[in-house]
Inverse folding.
C-alpha cells in the first residue's frame, strides 16, 4: 500500500450513469500521468441497489484494488424504491452513503449529495466521522446539475467537486467530455463541472484533508482497457472474423466489443438462439474456412459441451472464451468466482482434450487469446480462454504499444489446393484428411470448395478419409495421434513464459494463484516482503496442459505453499494435486467465495497467520495442508 | 484466382460421382425410404451441375445421418439436432459453397427444434431435408415428434398421448421461404423439389416422407400419394401464405387419416435471404469471407482502433 494514492469511489444506484462517469474520470487520471485500476461492484438488479465504481490511482504501478479507499462521492440513488418497500430493500436512498462507510479509510473524504441525502438518517454518522477523522463535504450536487442541465448530470458535479478537493486539473475532464459529446449537452455539463468546482473553492478549504491526486508521468502513451478488450483485440489481431454468441453476463462484454468491430473489419457477428447454436456456428464457420470464436459464462457454457466435443473429434479449430461468475446454476450473475475451472477442464464425454488459458490481466488476455488462436488453428483443437467477471470489467492502463503488433490471419495447418495435390487421396479422390501419422499429431485439413479436398468430418470415430469406422487398429491409431497433439502443445508452450513468478527468489514461503486476482496476490507478496517476511508468488496461466515441471520446481523451492483462489471447494488446489500428488502436505488453501474479489490485506493476513488456527477477519477461509502443519 | 476452384466450375456432372468408393452400398434396411432421398439428391445435384467439391452436406445423427457416408461430397456429420447451426455458419463463412443440411424428424423437429425455428426465421440461403418416418429408427422404434397420437412403442407403451408436430405449418410460421413435402416413393417429384429448393434464394425446407419398414410397420408406405399441385381436388396459391397454410394444415391432418398429400406448399421469392439482409446492413462482407484467408492483402488490427482508449 502506498500513501501516495487516490482510491476514489463513486456510489449510486444501478442506472445512475456512474459507470460512464467513472470511465471518464479514470481516463482523466491516466492522461494526467497516473496508473489506474478500476473495480466495479454492482448488484444483479435492473435498477437501484447498491453499486459503486472504485478507481485506484497512483504514480506507482497498480495491479489490484486496494484495501478500502479514501475518497467517496455518494450520489443519491434516483432509482431508490418506494419507502413502503423498506421491509425488503431497506432505506435505499441513503445506501450510496451508508453502505460505503465501513471500507472508508481513516482520514478519508466524503462528498455527498445534500440535495438527496440526509445524514440524520444514518445511524451514528457524526460519531463515526469524528472517530475516523473523515472530512465531510455536503454539496447539493443535484441542485447544481438541475440549474444548468438535467438531474442525471449530478455525476459531473461530483467530478467537479472531486477535482476541486484533490487538486486535479479539470482540463483533462473537459477534454474527455468534449470528445464524448457536443452542443448543448456539452455546454450544460461543462457548466455543471465548473459551477461545482468553483462552489467548493469558494465554500471550503481543500487543504483541510490529506487526500490529493498524486502526480505522475508515463514513459509512453497509455490506453485504458479491460480484460474483455484484451480478449477481443487478441482475437481481432489473429484474424478472427466470425463471432457467435448469446448474451450472458459477464461474457457479453467480449461479444459486444467484437460485434461492434466486425462491420469495420469485414467480419460477421451472429447473435443466435442459444449457446449450443453459438458454439456450433463457430465450428461451422471454422470448418468452412474462417477464424471463428464463441463464448459464454458458466450456464451458457454448459450448453457448449456438445459442440466442444464435436470440434475435438472432427479436429476443427475452435476458440471459446468462458467468463466465470459465481454459481452453481444462475448463482450470482454479477459477482466473480473461479469455480468453473473443473467445468471447463473436464466437460464433454470421452477422453477429451483441450487447451485452457487463464490470463490474469488485460495484457495477458491479449497475448493468451492470440496464442489460443495459434494453437487452435495449428493443432486443430479447441482452445479456451477462461477468465471471470472481475477481469472482464476492470479497467487499467497499459502502454498503447502493447497493441502495436502484426496481425496473423493464418489458418494454421490448412492446405491450399496446390498443397492438397501432394497429399494422399483415396481411389475416387477423397482426401485423407485424418491420416494416422502427422507431424506433432496434426493431419492438415482442407476447406469445402477446394478441388481435391473433399472428405467427411464426423463426430464418430473415423478412418483417414473420414469414413465412420470401429476398427480397433484404426481407433488406436487415431486416438494416439490426437493425444500426441497435447504432448506437442505442452512442448510448444514451454518455449514461452506464461507463468509469472515474483517476490524473493530464495523465499521460504510460496503463494500460488491463477487468473484475475493474481495482481492482488502480487501486491500482498510485496507488502509481506516489505514487512520482513520471505515470500514469493507464482501466477499460473496454463490450466491445460498443466505446466507440471515449473509448478513442481516452485513448490520444491519453498517450505510451505498457500494456494489462493475464489472457490469454496479448492478446485485449483485440486488441479495442482491431480498433477503433482506428492506435494499434498505442503499445500494449504485460502478460499473466498462471498462474491467479492480478494483485497491484498486478506492474503497478507492469511500468510502471516499460516497454521496459527486463528479465525480470519474477513469472509475468507484457510484450509491447512492435508498432512496438517 | 479463387482458392476454391470447385465452386462454380462449369462441367457436366454424372450422378455416379456422388457414389463413394468406400461404402457404395448403404446399410439402410431393405425397403427403407432413405434410399429414395439419396437417389433424388444425387439426381438433383447432377442435373444442377453441382460437383461434389462445391457441396457441403451437413447431417445430424440417426439413420438419416448416414446420408453423407453414402453421398460423396464435402460432408459434416455433426451431432444430434445440430446440423443447422453448423451448416448455416458454413454458408455465411464460405458462401459459394452449396450447403445442404439433412436429418431425421426427431433430429430436426425434436432435439433440434429450436435451431429449425431460428434458421427458418432467419431465412438462411440453404436447403434442409428432413427424413420424416414418424419414428426413431436408429435407436429401435421409439415414438418421435411426428408419431401419430396413440402410437405405441417401448417408450410409450400406453400409446402416445401427444399430438404430432405440424412440420409444414411450423416451418412457414417460423419464416421458411420455400416449404415442400415429398415422399421416397415419389422419386421424380422428390428430385424436382430438391432442385427447386437448392436454387431457391433463402431457407428451403423439405419434409421428406421416408417409410420405415422395420420400426414403423403399421405406418403407411406413403402410397398412394397425391401431388397437391397437380390434383384437381386441391386449389391453392403457393405464393399466398394464408392459402398455403390452409393446405398445410389439411395435409398434416390427412397424413394421419391415410391420405398422403405432397408437393410445393409455399414459395416466397420476394423475401431477401439472410445473407442479403445482412449485406444490406453492412453486417457481412460483400465477398466470400473464407476466400480472404487465402489472398494476399492487409488485415485490420486492433491498433487501428486503439485511440478510443487513449
Amino acid at each position: 500500500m502506498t500513501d501516495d494514492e487516490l482510491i476514489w469511489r463513486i456510489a449510486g444506484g444501478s442506472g445512475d450513469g456512474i459507470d460512464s462517469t467513472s470511465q471518464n474520470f479514470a481516463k482523466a487520471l491516466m492522461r494526467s500521468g497516473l496508473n489506474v485500476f478500476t473495480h466495479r461492484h454492482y448488484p444483479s438488479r435492473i435498477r437501484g441497489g447498491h453499486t459503486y465504481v472504485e478507481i485506484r490511482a497512483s504514480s506507482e504501478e497498480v495491479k489490484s484494488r486496494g484495501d478500502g479507499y479514501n475518497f467517496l462521492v455518494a450520489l443519491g440513488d434516483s432509482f431508490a424504491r418506494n419507502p413502503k418497500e423498506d421491509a425488503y430493500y431497506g432505506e435505499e436512498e441513503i445506501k450510496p452513503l451508508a453502505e460505503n462507510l465501513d471500507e472508508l479509510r481513516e482520514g478519508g473524504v466524503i462528498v455527498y449529495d445534500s440535495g438527496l441525502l440526509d445524514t440524520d438518517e444514518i445511524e451514528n454518522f457524526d460519531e463515526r466521522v469524528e472517530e475516523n477523522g473523515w472530512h465531510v463535504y455536503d454539496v447539493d450536487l443535484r441542485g447544481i446539475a438541475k440549474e444548468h442541465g438535467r438531474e442525471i448530470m449530478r455525476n459531473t458535479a461530483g467530478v467537479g467537486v472531486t477535482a476541486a478537493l484533490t487538486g486535479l486539473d479539470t482540463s483533462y475532464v473537459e477534454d474527455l467530455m468534449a470528445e464524448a459529446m457536443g452542443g448543448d449537452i456539452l455546454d450544460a455539463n461543462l457548466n455543471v463541472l465548473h459551477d461545482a468546482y468553483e462552489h467548493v473553492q469558494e465554500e471550503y478549504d481543500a487543504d483541510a484533508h490529506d487526500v490529493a491526486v498524486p502526480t505522475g508521468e508515463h514513459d509512453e502513451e497509455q490506453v485504458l482497457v479491460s480484460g474483455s478488450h484484451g480478449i477481443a483485440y487478441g482475437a481481432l489481431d489473429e484474424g478472427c472474423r466470425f463471432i457467435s454468441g448469446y448474451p450472458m453476463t459477464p461474457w457479453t462484454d467480449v461479444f459486444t466489443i467484437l460485434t461492434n468491430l466486425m462491420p469495420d473489419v469485414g467480419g460477421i457477428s451472429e447473435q443466435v438462439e442459444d449457446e449450443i447454436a453459438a458454439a456450433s456456428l463457430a465450428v461451422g464457420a471454422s470448418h468452412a474456412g474462417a477464424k471463428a470464436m464463441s463464448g459464454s459464462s458458466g450456464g451458457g457454457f454448459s450448453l457448449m459441451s456438445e459442440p466442444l466435443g464435436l470440434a475435438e473429434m472432427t479436429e476443427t479449430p475452435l476458440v471459446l472464451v468462458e467468463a466465470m461468475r459465481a454459481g452453481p446454476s444462475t448463482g450470482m450473475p454479477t459477482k466473480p468466482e473461479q469455480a468453473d475451472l473443473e467445468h471447463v477442464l473436464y466437460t464433454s464425454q470421452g477422453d477429451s482434450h483441450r487447451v485452457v488459458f487463464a490470463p490474469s490481466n488485460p495484457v495477458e488476455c491479449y497475448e493468451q487469446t492470440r496464442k489460443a488462436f495459434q494453437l487452435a488453428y495449428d493443432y486443430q483443437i479447441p482452445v479456451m480462454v477462461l477468465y471471470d467477471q472481475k477481469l472482464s470489467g476492470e479497467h487499467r492502463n497499459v502502454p498503447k504499444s502493447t497493441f502495436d503488433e502484426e496481425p496473423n490471419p493464418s489458418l494454421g495447418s490448412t492446405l491450399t489446393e496446390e498443397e492438397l495435390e501432394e497429399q494422399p487421396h483415396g481411389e475416387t479422390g477423397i482426401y485423407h484428411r485424418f491420416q494416422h501419422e502427422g507431424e506433432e499429431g496434426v493431419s492438415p485439413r482442407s476447406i469445402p470448395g477446394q478441388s481435391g479436398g473433399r472428405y467427411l468430418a464426423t463426430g464418430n470415430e473415423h478412418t483417414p478419409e473420414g469414413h465412420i469406422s470401429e476398427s480397433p487398429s484404426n481407433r488406436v491409431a487415431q486416438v494416439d495421434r490426437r493425444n500426441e497433439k497435447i504432448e506437442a502443445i505442452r512442448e510448444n508452450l514451454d518455449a514461452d513464459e506464461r507463468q509469472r513468478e515474483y517476490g524473493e527468489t530464495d523465499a521460504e514461503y510460496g503463494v500460488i494463484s491463477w487468473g484475475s486476482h493474481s495482481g492482488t496476490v502480487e501486491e500482498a507478496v510485496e507488502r509481506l516482503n516489505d514487512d520482513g517476511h520471505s515470500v514469493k508468488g507464482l501466477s499460473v496461466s496454463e490450466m491445460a496442459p498443466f505446466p507440471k515441471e515449473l509448478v513442481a520446481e516452485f513448490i520444491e523451492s519453498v517450505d510451505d505453499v498457500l494456494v489462493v483462489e475464489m472457490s469454496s471447494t479448492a478446485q485449483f488446489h485440486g488441479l495442482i494435486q491431480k498433477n503433482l500428488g506428492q506435494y499434498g502436505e505442503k499445500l494449504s488453501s485460502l478460499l473466498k467465495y462471498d462474491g467479492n474479489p480478494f483485497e491484498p490485506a486478506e492474503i497478507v493476513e492469511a500468510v502471516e497467520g499460516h497454521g496459527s488456527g486463528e479465525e480470519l477477519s474477513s469472509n475468507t477461509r484457510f484450509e491447512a495442508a492435508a498432512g496438517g502443519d | 484466382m479463387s482458392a476454391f476452384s470447385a465452386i462454380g466450375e462449369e462441367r457436366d456432372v454424372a450422378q455416379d460421382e456422388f457414389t463413394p468408393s468406400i461404402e457404395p452400398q448403404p446399410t439402410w434396411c431393405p425397403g427403407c425410404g432413405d434410399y429414395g432421398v439419396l437417389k433424388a439428391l444425387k439426381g438433383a445435384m447432377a442435373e444442377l451441375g453441382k460437383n461434389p467439391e462445391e457441396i457441403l452436406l451437413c447431417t445430424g445423427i440417426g439413420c438419416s445421418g448416414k446420408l453423407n457416408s453414402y453421398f460423396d461430397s464435402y460432408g459434416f456429420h455433426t451431432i444430434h439436432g445440430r446440423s443447422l447451426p453448423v451448416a448455416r455458419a458454413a454458408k455465411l463463412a464460405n458462401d459459394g459453397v452449396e450447403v445442404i443440411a439433412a436429418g431425421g424428424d426427431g433430429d430436426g423437429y425434436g432435439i433440434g427444434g429450436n435451431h429449425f425455428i431460428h434458421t427458418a426465421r432467419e431465412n438462411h440461403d440453404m436447403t434442409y431435408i428432413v427424413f420424416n418416418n414418424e419414428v426413431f429408427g436408429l435407436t429401435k422404434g421409439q415414438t418421435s415428434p411426428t408419431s401419430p397420437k396413440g402410437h405405441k412403442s417401448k417408450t410409450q407403451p400406453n400409446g402416445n398421448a401427444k399430438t404430432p408436430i405440424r412440420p409444414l405449418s411450423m416451418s412457414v410460421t417460423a419464416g421458411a421461404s420455400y416449404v415442400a413435402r415429398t415422399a421416397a416413393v415419389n422419386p421424380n417429384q422428390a428430385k424436382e423439389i430438391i432442385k427447386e429448393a437448392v436454387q431457391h434464394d433463402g431457407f428451403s425446407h423439405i419434409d421428406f416422407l421416408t417409410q420405415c419398414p422395420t420400426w414403423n410397420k403399421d405406418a403407411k408406405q406413403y402410397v398412394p400419394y397425391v401431388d397437391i399441385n397437380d390434383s384437381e381436388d386441391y386449389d391453392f396459391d403457393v405464393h399466398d401464405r394464408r392459402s398455403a397454410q390452409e393446405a398445410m394444415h389439411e395435409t398434416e391432418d390427412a397424413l394421419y387419416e391415410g391420405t398422403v398429400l405432397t408437393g410445393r406448399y409455399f414459395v416466397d421469392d420476394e423475401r431477401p435471404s439472410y445473407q442479403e439482409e445482412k449485406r444490406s446492413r453492412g453486417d457481412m462482407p460483400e465477398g466470400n469471407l473464407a476466400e480472404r484467408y487465402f489472398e494476399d492483402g492487409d488485415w485490420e488490427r486492433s491498433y487501428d482502433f486503439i485511440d478510443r482508449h487513449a
In short: The radius of gyration of chain B is 20 Å. Chain B has ten helices and ten strands. The longest helix of chain B spans residues 241-255. The longest strand of chain B covers residues 260-267.
